[in-house]
UniProtKB/TrEMBL annotation:
<protein>
    <submittedName>
        <fullName>FAD dependent oxidoreductase</fullName>
    </submittedName>
</protein>
<dbReference type="InterPro" id="IPR036188">
    <property type="entry name" value="FAD/NAD-bd_sf"/>
</dbReference>
<dbReference type="InterPro" id="IPR039650">
    <property type="entry name" value="HdrA-like"/>
</dbReference>
<keyword id="KW-0479">Metal-binding</keyword>
<keyword id="KW-0004">4Fe-4S</keyword>
<keyword id="KW-0408">Iron</keyword>
<dbReference type="GO" id="GO:0016491">
    <property type="term" value="F:oxidoreductase activity"/>
</dbReference>
<keyword id="KW-0411">Iron-sulfur</keyword>
<keyword id="KW-0560">Oxidoreductase</keyword>
<dbReference type="GO" id="GO:0051539">
    <property type="term" value="F:4 iron, 4 sulfur cluster binding"/>
</dbReference>
<dbReference type="GO" id="GO:0046872">
    <property type="term" value="F:metal ion binding"/>
</dbReference>
<dbReference type="Pfam" id="PF12831">
    <property type="entry name" value="FAD_oxidored"/>
</dbReference>
Length: 740
């Protein structure tokens, strides 16, 4: 046996999505990182060993403009390019390559951390056993990140934690039980089937469960076409000790899986003769165990109230998604869901231990109540928390701060670092004093100023109320819709304020009108609604249902515009995943609509400072049609020359498009059409000469860093868009400029 010592700036234990993003986040800040993972592959529950699909703040389209940016965003975009059909092995590769691309990370696979050493209440090292190599490795670093899901590191270090469910009285959470208990969400084993092309037998093992003696056939959906995560409900062990009883739980889950398979193959109720088992998980996917206690415990109120934390470092959007303790045998529904009205924030104070001063935590073990954990636990959210912890660990170390000091005394350092990394935060404007672009005047060769979609692709009866989200800057002074009217009628149209910049539902009525429309086809009707919000904001325009009216639809929509149809859900739909009164319609398409007058929604100024993601509007510059301005330019001009060392260009990767393809969701484009494909960047020196800074071809990424070989004194910077990946106009989310 060999004994090794590894010294780094940060040790990350656990190579699930939280750990991967923590390691990459810190490495990109310049920290050396040991990433220690006890499985042979990266990805945790998302890996090919478990095959849970990566969900996040988009909540399968319930939330809008909500896809994560930062490292998780890069992983989504890369996976969509390499793996649009969602092959679990290709996903493993995407993760492995992302880690290997970082020279500051040393990856230790198959290395199970088992013990640790402390001094004065701080962790000094953790030690793991590398299976297959007979190595005992001790990892030394000034700070540690517990991203192990189960939280063994924090537990061994004496960090305070919770398991089970808090009583309702503790945080006044309506979804918490009256009496506290140790129930958690249980674990799951998934399976995949394939058509063998000819009849194949299945002889069940002696331990297969006879599921006809359980509530499973009545209460759960079993279908021959189902695979993988469709069987998320094969859950058990929530009433046991999910870790201590892991072996027993695995045995029970395997018995259930083979019992379900026996039922499918041999009960005679399914057309399954040609089906065979292609894959069955050997490692139970664990949902819940320790939740560490930080300086803030995120609660149901924070999530549903979308609390505006000063120290926000990430956002989520999944429903509070809780499961009955009995799991697969429970007679209740397998899950209940409560969606927030839009994305909610997560504070840095929930990402470190309150009593072990050098311990960061990220993933399913953060400081949250059981109820709030029900939403933060999805993997893209775990990933953005990981990135925040990675960045925070480096920023704190650079400035000699503890996690608590960074969160409560010097949070501006963290905010700037998050923004610079293009991390997934909402509602944070770029006021970074290091960003030279903020002092520049910005102009564009053209700007899309008269929002209009005029080419009809068909009609849709106005059978229910139909809402259109319309970004407004600075004011709306009427709009027109293209309609067919069967018989003369009066159409009611309302304008609502969604009240929060990340929400897209009609909440507060601002204006309404009734428009008399004569019978006829293809008529543009004037809707005299007006609104001048205090700051640029989204309006939600609601066309009230009218049996005499059909609206014309279009194959495209403008950035920032989405459509929702009203429905009256059945009372028993409440708290199901499908429950929502306004359902997204006309995905990637829209209505024929013209906005009266000019709009500044897509002005060049949006690419400087701002939010770098949709927030009360799309927050980007958009040129006129390329047919009219084929190679649009965006210019930054400084009153006095600046010393330029680096330019960061952030392009539009269309965060409305859900890229969750690891199970059954599919997205049509391997490369997002809104991304610029080719562009050139030039700088002008004090004598007026232009020289290249960078030339990008065949781009498929959102963020491109241009580090200059040598610093240059420049008075202007120009981005020339040469081609998009399919969008009819050039989009630029942000241009940032930094000193060397
Ligand atoms: C069946 C199931 C269905 C789910 N459904 C969804 C869903 O549809 N979408 C979604 O996004 N989320 C879903 N979740 C939740 C999600 O999978 C977890 O919350 C998420 O994986 C947590 O991420 P993580 O990085 O914190 O931990 P994990 O994914 O658990 O990763 C932690 C990693 O650390 C490793 N590790 C643990 N201990 C040690 C140690 N001592 N030394 C070294 N390494 C260690 C583990 O092996 C693991 O690989 C589901 C979970 C399950 C089980």
């Amino acid at each position: 046996m060999q004994q090794l010592d590894v010294h780094s700036d940060l040790t990350v234990v656990g190579g699930g999505l939280a750990g991967i993003c923590a390691a990459i986040g810190a490495a990109r800040q310049g920290s050396t990182v040991a990433l220690v993972q006890n499985r042979p592959v990266l990805g945790g529950n998302s890996s090919s060993e478990v095959r849970v699909w990566v969900c996040g703040a988009t909540a399968h389209g319930v939330q809008h403009f909500a896809r994560e940016t930062g490292i998780m965003g890069e992983l989504f975009v890369e996976n969509q390019y390499r793996n649009p059909e969602g092959n679990p092995y290709y996903w493993d590769l995407v993760l492995l390559e992302a880690v290997r691309a970082e020279p500051n990370i040393t990856l230790f696979l198959n290395t199970d951390v088992r013990t640790l050493a402390t001094a004065d209440g701080e962790i000094t090292s953790v030690t793991g056993w590398q299976m297959g190599s007979e190595k005992e490795i001790t990892f030394h670093s000034p700070v540690f990140a517990d991203c192990s899901g189960d939280g063994l590191v924090g537990h061994l270090a004496g960090a305070e934690y919770r398991t089970g469910r808090e009583p309702r009285s503790e945080y006044d959470e309506s979804w918490a039980p009256e009496i506290p208990d140790q129930n958690t969400l249980g674990s799951t084993i998934l399976f995949y089937t394939k058509d063998a092309g000819e009849p194949v037998r299945f002889v069940p093992p002696s331990f297969a469960k006879d599921i006809t003696e359980t509530a499973i056939p009545d209460r759960r959906v079993i279908r021959t076409e189902a695979n993988g995560c469709s069987y998320w409900w094969i859950e058990w062990g929530g009433e046991l000790d999910v870790v201590g009883d892991n072996e027993r739980i695995r045995d029970e889950l395997q018995a259930v899986v083979y019992g379900i398979w026996d039922y499918l193959k041999n009960s005679g109720r399914f057309d399954a003769d040609n089906l065979t088992l292609e894959w069955i998980g050997a490692v139970p996917g664990k949902r819940e165990y320790r939740r560490f206690v930080g300086d803030h415990v995120l609660t149901q109120h924070d999530v549903l109230g979308q609390a505006e934390f000063e120290d926000r470092v990430a956002f989520g959007g999944w429903s509070i998604d809780l499961h009955p303790p009995g799991g697969v045998y429970a007679s209740e529904r397998g899950s209940k869901h409560w969606h927030p009205d839009g994305n909610y924030h997560i504070p840095l104070r929930s990402l470190y231990s309150r009593n072990v001063p050098n311990l960061w935590v990220a993933g399913r073990n953060i400081s949250a109540s059981h109820v709030a954990f029900g939403t933060t636990r999805v993997m893209a959210t775990c990933a953005v928390l990981g990135e925040a912890v990675g960045i925070a660990s480096a920023v704190a170390a650079r400035n000699g701060l503890t996690p608590r000091q960074l969160a409560t005394e010097r949070f501006e350092l963290m905010r700037n670092a998050l923004r610079r990394a293009d991390a997934s935060v909402l509602g944070v404007v770029d006021d970074d004093p290091d960003n030279l672009a903020l002092a520049a005047t910005v102009t564009a060769s053209s700007t899309y100023r008269r929002p209009a979609v005029e080419v009809s692709a068909g009609t849709m009866p106005l059978a229910t109320d139909l809402a259109m989200v319309l970004p407004v800057d600075p004011a709306l002074d009427g709009l027109e819709f293209l309609v067919d009217v069967r018989e003369a009628t009066s159409l009611t149209v309302e304008l609502h304020d969604p009240l929060k910049p990340q929400n897209y539902l009609p909440v507060e009525l601002v204006d309404s009108c009734s428009v008399d429309v004569p019978a006829g086809e293809k008529r543009w009707i004037q809707v005299p609604l007006s609104w001048r919000p205090e700051v640029p904001a989204n309006a939600v325009i609601v066309l009230k249902a009218n049996p005499s009216v059909s609206v014309h639809t279009a194959e495209t929509a403008l950035p920032g515009m989405i459509y929702l149809a009203h429905r009256d859900p059945a009372p028993d739909e409440q708290y199901t995943e499908q429950f929502r009164e306004w359902k997204h319609v006309l995905r990637r398409a829209g209505l024929c609509v013209r906005v009266t007058g000019e709009s500044s929604v897509y002005s060049a100024e949006k690419a400087i400072g701002g939010h770098a993601r949709p927030y009360g509007g799309p927050q980007m510059w958009m040129s006129e049609d390329l047919a009219w301005d084929p190679e649009p330019t965006l210019d930054l001009t400084w009153p006095d020359p600046v010393e330029l060392g680096e330019v960061v260009v952030i392009l539009d990767d269309d965060v409305e498009e859900d890229l969750i393809n690891l199970h059954h969701h599919r997205s049509p484009n391997e490369i997002l059409p809104t991304l610029l494909r080719d562009y050139d960047l030039e700088a002008r020196d004090a004598s007026g000469n232009w020289a290249p800074v960078g030339s990008v071809r065949a781009n498929r990424r959102r963020r491109i860093n241009h580090v200059l070989d040598e610093p240059r004194s420049v008075s202007a910077l120009r981005l020339t868009a040469r081609a998009t990946n399919g969008a009819p106009r050039a989009h630029v989310v942000s241009v940032r400029a930094y000193r060397p």
